[in-house]
Amino acid sequence: MTTLDTAFCLEALDEALGEGVTEIFNSEQGSQFTSEEFTHRLTVSNIRISMDGGGRAHDNIFVEGLWRSVKHEEVYPAQYMDMIDARSGLARYFPFYNHERRHQSLGRKTPAEVYARQG
Prior knowledge:
Layout: H1 6-19, E1 24-27, H2 31-34, H3 36-44, E2 48-51, H4 61-78, H5 83-99, H6 111-115
Parallel strand pairs: 1-2
């Protein structure tokens, strides 16, 4: 079963924090993101929490743009047959998106070039 429960989101957050830390984490107000465990993980990493207002897609326009790209460049063209196929396709797409795809909004650089962890 695939769900967006708190454990799944904590696992994804831990993986992301292993790559680097951001100043602000923006999400919707779902229970997985408002849980004490999730918000605590952010605050101990000195990450400010920002949550969108209900029905306000423009509050997080950058993530909305990401999902538009994911859908139009990967999900819709791929026409996945099942969750295994979807996971495999997305596992290939996100490294491409972050390390190879040049973004107009980032001055034709990749997100990895702009947001790479400073050593």
